[in-house]
Design goal:
The chain is α/β, with parallel strands linked by helices and about 290 residues long. The protein has a single domain, classed as Rossmann fold. Helices cover about 40% and strands about 10% of the residues. The strands form two sheets. A five-stranded parallel β-sheet has the order 4-1-5-6-7, with helices on both faces. The protein has a two-stranded antiparallel sheet with strand order 2-3. Helix 7 links the parallel strand 6 and strand 7.
């Protein structure tokens, strides 16, 4: 039966509608490929002291709840986590322990995202400064500034002379191995408040005059990390404001970093689980991943 004018009009109209729908929808959207994400760095990246522990390798005291794992779980990224407690900048390009290869071996041309914290263990800065100031604080009964009086600018001088060039070399190695990646270098959250809190002495036994001294060393290290990151074309994630009031002297549930004594972590003076989550939050905000 031949088409009537009405049937021809109806068929043309349906074809036009179909073409319009096809034009609006197009080819079905493809899901974005997950990020190839590599996490490098020291114990602040590894989440040392936060349970559960990743047993491969156990010597690195790497947590399965560290900020890299939090970021990966929220973004769906494919995570390669080679963070390791006690890592120094040299361990980016050298083996830290037998069976623990150079951290940059985790990188490649297909790496999309790299995060790291590094520099605090170079020259024994963190452990040396905290131990020296806590020992001096106990011996002085918390009075004066015995750590500053004894050590002066030695810690910051070593950061300038040794840590800074080492950071630049380490970040250059990261860029060489992962030329297409976004690189985020995290600062260290505050360990002590800006001024002494007498109620905190039992947990962080640093003399009242040495609390700002110890904080000044950390501020200098963070500024050095920031400078090296910016010179390498990396993004610096600053915690100076975000971690204020969340140092080791803050109460449980508020603090991001556990105290030297009577804390709730297996590894003192390190971020707890809350701290790791908040480090992830801040990093994702800075990178626009949230």
């Amino acid at each position: 039966m031949p088409y009537s004018p009405l049937r021809r009009f109806t068929a043309a109209a349906l074809a036009a509608v179909g073409a319009l729908v096809l034009g609006l929808t197009g080819t079905p959207a493809q899901a974005a490929a997950p990020l190839d994400y590599a996490a490098l760095g020291d114990s602040y990246s590894a989440g040392s002291g936060v349970l559960p522990v990743d047993p491969t390798p156990l010597i690195c005291l790497r947590s399965k709840a560290n900020y890299p794992h939090v970021i990966a779980s929220r973004t769906g990224a494919r995570l390669k986590d080679v963070t390791c407690g006690a890592a120094q900048t040299k361990d980016f390009t050298n083996s830290q322990y037998p069976g623990v290869g150079p951290q940059v071996n985790a990188l490649g041309t297909g790496t999309d995202l790299v995060t790291l914290t590094i520099g605090g263990n170079d020259n024994n800065t963190f452990v040396g400064a905290v131990t020296a100031c806590a020992t001096a604080g106990v011996l002085s009964g918390g009075r004066g500034s015995p750590c500053k009086d004894r050590n002066g600018t030695s810690f910051t001088d070593e950061i300038d002379a040794s840590t800074y060039p080492a950071l630049r070399s380490a970040l250059a190695a990261v860029r060489a191995k992962a030329p297409n990646a976004r690189v985020a270098v995290l600062g260290y959250p505050w360990i002590v408040p800006a001024t002494a809190d007498p109620s905190c002495f039992a947990k962080v036994p640093v003399a009242s005059g040495d609390v700002p001294y110890l904080r000044g060393i950390q501020a200098h290290l963070n500024d050095t990390v920031r400078r090296a990151a910016q010179e390498a074309g990396a993004t610096y994630v600053d915690f100076a404001t975000a971690s204020e009031g969340r140092d080791a002297c803050a109460p449980p549930g508020t603090r991001w970093v556990e105290p030297l004594l009577f804390g709730g972590s297996l590894v003192p003076v390190h971020p707890n689980a809350l701290g790791q989550r908040r480090m992830a939050d801040r990093t994702m905000d800075v990178l626009g991943l949230s």
